[in-house]
């Protein structure tokens, strides 16, 4: 895993746990420019995402001296996303694997990713619980902030 991807992974895990809270398979990609090469999603990663979304995937956790949460996991017909973060931008995009596979270009530009994303990153208003864009502060409106 590349350094920028590793840094984003920590933030993304927290976002999944505290904001999005949706079961699924997520493959993270970080672009250092305004476009991401589609070839960055490797064939075996695409195969796993498609298997989780349209069938059943089982994975045995490696016994490599780490404390694993379990021996294996199984996912059947669950959401599967390529998560794209453009370095220097605050938002990120969850692109359904089916939509990813429909793309015919060699690279995915920021604006196109925004257009085809199933989920654009968001956070939760601390007062009313509404979804708000990442670039906003902690509240969706001045009214919520005053409460």
Task: Summarize the structure in short.
19% of the residues are buried. The protein has one domain (3-122).
Q: What does the model show?
A:
The chain is an alpha+beta fold and 147 residues long. The protein has one domain (3-122). Helix content is 33%, strand content 29%. The chain has 5 helices and 10 strands; from the N terminus they run αββαββββαβαβββα. The chain has helices at residues 3-20, 43-54, 97-102, 110-116, 142-146; strands spanning 25-31, 35-37, 56-60, 72-76, 80-86, 92-96, 107-109, 119-120, 122-124, 131-133. Strands 1-5-6-8 form a 4-stranded mixed β-sheet, sandwiched between helices. Strands 2-7 form a two-stranded antiparallel ribbon. A hairpin with a 6-residue loop joins strand 9 (122-124) and strand 10 (131-133). The longest helix is centred in the first third of the chain and has 18 residues, at 3-20. It is globular. The mean pLDDT is 87.
* Number of E strands: 10
How many helix segments?
A: 5
Q: How helix-rich are the residues, as a percent range?
A: 25-40%
Strand numbers in spatial order across the main sheet: 1-5-6-8
Low-confidence stretches: none
Query: Mean pLDDT across all residues, rounded?
Result: 87
Element-by-element helix/strand order: HEEHEEEEHEHEEEH
Structural class: alpha+beta
- How many domains, in number, for the residues? 1
* Largest sheet report: 4 strands, mixed
Rg from C-alpha positions? 17 Å
The percentage of residues in β strands lies in 25-35%
Distance between the termini: 43 Å
């Amino acid at each position: 895993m590349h350094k920028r991807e590793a840094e984003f992974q920590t933030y993304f895990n927290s976002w999944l746990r505290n904001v999005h809270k949706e079961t699924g398979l997520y493959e993270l990609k970080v672009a250092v420019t305004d476009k991401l090469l589609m070839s960055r999603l490797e064939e075996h990663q695409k195969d796993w995402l498609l298997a989780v979304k349209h069938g059943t995937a089982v994975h045995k956790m490696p016994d490599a001296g780490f404390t694993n949460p379990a021996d294996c996991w199984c996912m059947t017909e669950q959401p599967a996303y390529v998560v794209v973060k453009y370095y220097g931008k605050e938002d990120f995009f969850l692109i359904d694997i089916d939509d990813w596979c429909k793309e015919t270009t060699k690279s995915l530009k920021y604006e196109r990713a925004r257009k085809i994303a199933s989920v654009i990153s968001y956070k939760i208003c601390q007062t009313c619980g509404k979804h708000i864009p990442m670039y906003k502060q902690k509240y969706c409106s001045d009214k919520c902030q005053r409460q």
